[in-house]
Fold Pogo transposable element with KRAB domain.
Amino acid sequence: MPPKRRSYTADFKLQVVKYAAEKGNRPAEREFGVSEKLVRDWCKAEATLISMKKTKRANRGLKARWPELEQRVHTWVLGQKAAGLSTVKLRLHAQGVAKEMKIIDFAAGPSWCLRFMKRNHVSIRAKMSQEVTDSQARWTVSVPSLKRRSLHTMCHQITSFTCRKYRSPLTSP
């Protein structure tokens, strides 16, 4: 079974790089208990490691492939939050922006959408209330954890109650 994956701080990586520069990659491997491949990678990334915060453990996550596109889409998303937004709308808008920018190989798939939301700290949540309107009455039904079937039943009961109360012809008795 392969060894368990570990993460190392930027400070530790810089210590390994310094040791490797003085004595070589193999001695650094033995001294610090990491593979020679990691030592080589960290030596290549020394400039990045120096600019990183010393306690940072990893340099995870790829940068956006199309940063200008993502900036435009992010601006649009911030404007749409109040009006309601779904991932489908987000993806369609991103495809439209990509066409405007003449980006040919952009698909705006579900995985891109998920990564975009993580990169930009955007969350799209399902609506948690359903409004039932009548000509004379308006109620908001809060639905925190109801199943779809019970939601349907609840809405039907409220609609029936509204119809009986105001004698509206919305549902037949």
